[in-house]
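User: Watch each token:
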Amino acid sequence: MGRMSKASPTLAEIEQIARSTIADLPAPFAAAASEVVLRVEDLPDTQMLAELNMDDPLELTGLYEGVPMTHKSVTYPEPWPDTVWLFRKPILAELATRDGVTLEQLVAHVTIHEFAHHFGWSDDDIATIDRWWE
């Protein structure tokens, strides 16, 4: 099973990598991240894609849904919890295009990118610390 699971990791395996990544964040970030729901699915749903004006579900490896911490207010109740979504099939499709990158590295990259949006960072902010973001 070892080889098979590496070739096609399960949703649970990807979730475990993401949870390990979150647990390894510096303390203030890990505490804030613990309040976010982590969901791992095979593919984004059609509503998510429509809201992002995307046609190809394999182009979306992850998504942050919520109000960034920098925009939160104690007087503004949130109707649902902040959620970070990771999508297994798009992650595997991207992994196939990246030489020398492990599944663990890619899942960690996507996880950190989506949680960075929760912390209120823009794509430009993320690009200054993440060499992968282009």
Summary: The longest helix spans residues 103-118. Residues 3 and 12 are 16 Å apart (CA to CA).
